[in-house]
Design brief:
single chain, alpha+beta, Dipeptide-binding Protein, domain 1, Dipeptide-binding Protein, domain 3, 12-stranded mixed β-sheet, 4-stranded antiparallel β-sheet, about 25% strand, globular, disordered N terminus
């Protein structure tokens, strides 16, 4: 009898182990997915106020604009079904799609569209949330299906800006969008537990293709040291921004997708802070930076070195030759430092958000590299919300390492942050010629002319060493094999609607 009872226990134990293994290898519940993200949505649930790239990549699933981005870099109709543009590029007529509903069940009305665009454009007493929207003179309702946007100047890039998460259509009736997220996207917001998670569920009345996964949890995973353990243990099904070292620690229960992060990772120098107010010092920093060494040591050789502020995915504008302007040259760096009066080097601080392991690793490599030219760099790790408020918002930093993203699929989105009076210009770069060319780039209706202007802007940033451009980081995404279908975009986006149970 004792032997029979022991045998039963052994069988039950074996079944428990097998079932547990199945759960982590893709045989478990695939109606719910838990996705790790590096930081909480600290800034706002209001898409018009969201600043952080990490916030926008999550809210992408909740909100849509008149247009939306496609994986190939184009923009496609969303809340609008189609649009026409006048010959002079100053008037856009949008036909709204039939049957689009907000997550609270209300139909999208022309008045909601007018309200949203006017809010983003700063026509309600605030400043424009998207600078291109400062050109909007009027938003007119022709009828319940037709909206006409009139511009003070021609702008052929407006559809791209209307596809940004910051350009989402929200209900006029929602008076608390900072805390109550109501959009038209494939997923609706359910709840947020600060520093823990954000919960969403599929929207049954979504106008487009229905999502495959019903329940989504975005889990805050700020500690890079426990990431692999949490994936292997089953508390996470997916994490997007992984290093090659982390990926190599995972077992074969995960699909690994490899792409690029579509971020400009750089050592961003505060151009108003000594010694970086001297162009010779900034140029010396560029010569003292061994990009290939950073990519090899911190990223196992995975990454694309870049020489200016446009990512390689923007093929029309990207200038690979700018990567060769500053070759790694310790002696040249020392020579420039001597000319600038820093023959014996100087002390500097690199402020880095602690929850972004790739940026921390990059900083650690640079600290060692700069010793070779007499620069004593100190690494200062800060929490993400502190970085957002102090470094980005108040510009209280000497230098920092992060990745800046194109908030829309335009060269303007990458280059506008260096305009002297831009609210995004956290490096305090200022150059009159740059500002003049930028104005020309965004006002012309000639595509060839605007492309030439954007390339001139990239060249100025490189020549003036506005920042120490390093790379577009390799992007590794780990996805539990019970799921499939992760899709890359040439933007900082997690599109959960395309993820599906593995067949």
């Amino acid at each position: 009898m004792k032997k029979k009872f022991a045998l039963i226990l052994l069988v039950l134990l074996t079944l428990t182990i097998v079932l547990g293994a199945c759960s982590s290898t893709g045989k478990g519940d695939s109606s719910k997915i838990t996705i790790g993200i590096a930081q909480d949505l600290e800034d706002s649930l209001d898409p018009h106020r969201a600043v952080a790239a990490g916030t926008k990549e999550v809210l992408f699933n909740v909100y849509e604009g008149l247009m939306k981005p496609a994986p190939d870099g184009s923009v496609i109709p969303a809340v609008a079904e189609k649009f026409e543009v006048s010959q002079d590029g100053k008037e856009y007529t949008f036909t709204l799609r039939e049957g689009v509903k907000f997550h609270n069940g209300d139909p999208v009305k022309a008045s909601d569209v007018k309200y949203s665009i006017e809010k983003i454009a700063g026509m309600m007493g605030d400043k424009p949330r998207i600078s291109a929207f400062s050109l909007i003179e009027a938003v007119n309702i022709e009828d319940e299906k037709t909206i006409v946007i009139k511009l003070s100047e021609p702008n052929m890039e407006l559809p791209y800006h209307l596809a940004m998460t910051n350009a989402a259509i929200i209900p006029e009736s929602n008076k608390t969008p900072d805390t109550v997220a109501i959009g038209t996207g494939p997923y609706k917001f359910v709840s947020r537990s600060p520093q823990e998670n954000i919960v969403m569920e599929s929207f049954d009345d979504y106008w487009g293709d229905k999502p495959f996964i019903k329940d989504v949890i975005f889990k805050i995973e700020a500690n890079a040291d426990t990431l692999v353990m949490d994936l292997m243990g089953g508390s996470l099904d997916m994490f997007k921004h992984m290093t090659k070292t982390q990926v190599d620690q995972l077992d074969d229960n995960f699909r690994i997708y490899e792409g690029t992060a579509n971020l400009v990772q750089a050592l961003y120098l505060n151009n108003k802070e000594k010694p970086f107010d001297d162009i010779r010092v900034r140029q010396a920093m560029c010569y003292a930076t061994d990009k290939e060494g950073v990519i090899k040591l911190a990223f196992d050789g995975k990454g694309v070195p870049i020489g200016s502020a446009v990512i390689p995915a923007f093929k029309k504008y990207y200038m690979p030759e700018l990567n060769d302007v500053y070759t790694y040259d310790v002696e040249k760096a020392k020579e420039l430092l001597k000319e600038a009066g820093y023959e014996n080097g100087f002390n500097m601080t690199i402020t880095v958000p602690s929850n972004y392991d790739p940026h921390v690793k990059t900083a650690e490599v640079l600290v060692e590299q700069y010793k070779k030219v007499g620069i004593n760099a100190k690494l200062e790790l800060v929490e993400w919300n502190s970085w957002l408020s102090d470094v980005y918002g108040d510009r209280k930093h000497q230098s920092t390492i992060v990745g800046t993203d194109p908030s829309s699929m335009t060269a303007r989105a990458m280059l506008e942050r260096y305009v002297s009076d831009s609210g995004k210009n956290f490096v305090n770069f200022s150059d009159e010629r740059y500002d003049e060319i930028f104005k020309k780039a965004i006002s012309t209706v000639d595509d060839e002319e605007s492309t030439i202007c954007y390339k001139q802007l990239e060249t100025i940033l490189t020549e003036k060493a506005a920042s120490v451009y390093i790379q577009d980081m390799a992007e590794f995404v780990a996805l539990n094999k019970k799921f499939d279908g992760y899709t890359f975009y040439p933007m900082y986006i997690i599109d959960v609607s395309k993820i599906k149970p593995a067949s």
